[in-house]
Amino acid sequence: MLSIGEHAETLYARAAQLAYARELDLGRPSMMLRPKVFMDVDQWCALYGDNLQDGVAGFGSSPERAYYDFDRNWLWSTAEKDACDAEKAGIVKK
């Protein structure tokens, strides 16, 4: 059985873990950019931008899954843009 001090230490450690996880969560593109979330036929859509052609979107069976797909797509689109910019600047060649 844990003493009161050990129990408090365990709770403090768990609170620190949760605070760190929350901080990481707030750094996700979907949390910073707050895309619009809505039902699109039979799945949820998280859309940043005016439309699917010009914006970045994520889809899923729940809003949270749409947010995670949005995060993946946002990071992929920015990685592609960075690679294209680097090529244009002559830093890397195709």
Task: Write the topology of this structure.
Layout: H1 4-26, H2 29-33, E1 36-40, E2 43-48, E3 56-60, H3 63-88
Antiparallel strand pairs: 1-2, 2-3
Describe this structure in words.
The protein is an alpha+beta fold and 94 residues long. It has one domain (4-88). It is 57% helix and 17% strand. The chain contains three helices and three strands; from the N terminus they run ααβββα. It has helices spanning 4-26, 29-33, 63-88; strands at residues 36-40, 43-48, 56-60. Strands 1-2-3 form a three-stranded antiparallel β-sheet. Strand 2 (43-48) and strand 3 form a beta hairpin. It is elongated. The N and C termini lie far apart (63 Å). The mean pLDDT is 82.
Helix content: 55-70%
Total number of distinct structural domains: 1
Mean pLDDT: 82
Q: Which structural class best describes the helix and strand composition?
A: alpha+beta
What is the rounded Rg? 20 Å
Give the amount of beta strand, in percent: 15-25%
The major beta sheet can be summarized as: 3 strands, antiparallel
The number of strands is 3
User: Low-confidence parts, pLDDT < 50 over ≥5 residues?
Assistant: none
Q: For the largest sheet, list the strands in their spatial order.
A: 1-2-3
* Distance separating the two termini: 63 Å
Q: Name the shape in a single word.
A: elongated
Q: Could you list some keywords that capture this structure?
A:
elongated; 57% helix; 3 strands; single chain; three-stranded antiparallel β-sheet; 3 helices
